[in-house]
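Weekly sync, protein design subgroup
Attendees: M.S., D.O., the rotation student, P.L. (late)

Item 1: inverse folding check
M.S. brought a backbone from last month's batch and wanted to see whether the design step gives back something sensible before we order anything. D.O. pointed out we never logged the input encoding, so this time it goes straight into the notes. Structure tokens as presented (311 positions):
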């Protein structure tokens, strides 16, 4: 298997719910479930890789408080080189709803100060040569995002293919955010977006056409993946062909981080040089398992997730 790494936002998630109806100001409601867990797009993907028995590296940072210490302890040796910022650690409170959707309240915290120097402190480019690096949380990691051109140069110099999942812009898909994302994608070998992100970015209402429009801004041979939740996932491959995978029918418990889990499983299959259709199937299968289990389960291995498709 090719080397794997993730670069981006790791923070603390406090999940509460389900909440229905939304409470009025000044009132209190009781919910059935609470969970304090590692969160952020990079954190969610890393947890999935670890649960699936996949070797990986991770570049992140934390704040200087107890939450930061807890995050570093959660990743053990992989977090030994993470810088510690003087800010408080970013905290997201996720309120779940009976339909499995969620509402987030997030502090800025340490994430804006995640930098290119932090990435270089945590990752060995030679070790990752020929592999894939998942780049996520673009609209949260201000310092690093400002240095993306240098990060892209570093990846190119080591033969590392970047897979980009920007997340949702805090101020929406303004023209400035769309242009910035197109510029980033022009240096990436894989785009991993959900359906709403892809249609908003491309200006195309059809997800297939959205994927084709996004690919138009990427290097030759790039892959565009559109995650469609219960409708599975679609992709436009390196040659421009359309590929799809259906999602298994499951009883949804918690959709938080579903796309991040998909990213992890998809890239693990891609790093194992599987056909793109199998990579999509792996991503949808593992993500579906994750959102339908409490405590969350990712199945024991990629092989189990896909009926032996992945070695």
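Designed sequence read out in the meeting:
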């Amino acid at each position: 298997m090719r080397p794997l790494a993730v670069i981006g936002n790791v923070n603390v998630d406090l999940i509460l719910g389900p909440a229905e109806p939304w409470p009025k100001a000044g009132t209190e409601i009781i919910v059935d479930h609470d969970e304090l867990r590692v969160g952020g797009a990079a954190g969610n993907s890393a947890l999935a890789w670890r649960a699936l028995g996949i070797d990986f590296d991770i570049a992140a940072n934390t704040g200087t408080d107890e939450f930061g210490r807890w995050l570093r302890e959660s990743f053990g040796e992989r977090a030994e080189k993470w810088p510690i910022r003087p800010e408080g650690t970013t905290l997201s409170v996720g309120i779940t709803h009976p339909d499995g959707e969620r509402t987030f309240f997030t502090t800025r915290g340490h994430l804006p100060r995640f930098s290119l120097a932090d990435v270089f402190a945590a990752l060995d480019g030679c070790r990752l040569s020929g592999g894939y690096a998942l780049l996520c949380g673009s609209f949260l990691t201000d310092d690093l995002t400002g240095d993306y051109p240098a990060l892209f140069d570093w990846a190119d110099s080591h033969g590392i293919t970047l897979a980009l999942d920007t997340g949702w812009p805090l101020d929406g898909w303004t023209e400035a955010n769309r242009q910035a994302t197109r510029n980033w994608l022009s240096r990436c070998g894989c785009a991993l977006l959900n359906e709403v992100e892809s249609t908003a970015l491309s200006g195309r209402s059809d997800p297939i056409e959205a994927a084709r429009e996004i690919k138009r801004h990427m290097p030759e041979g790039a892959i565009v993946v559109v995650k469609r939740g219960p409708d599975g996932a679609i992709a436009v491959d390196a040659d421009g062909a359309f590929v799809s995978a259906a999602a298994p029918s499951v009883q949804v418990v918690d959709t938080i981080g579903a796309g991040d889990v998909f990213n992890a499983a998809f890239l693990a299959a891609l790093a194992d040089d599987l056909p793109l259709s199998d990579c999509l199937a792996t991503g949808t299968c593992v993500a579906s398992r994750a959102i339908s289990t409490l405590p969350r389960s990712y199945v024991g291995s990629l092989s189990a997730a896909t009926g032996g498709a992945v070695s």
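Discussion: The radius of gyration is 18 Å. The chain has a mean pLDDT of 94.
Action: P.L. to compare against the previous round before Friday.
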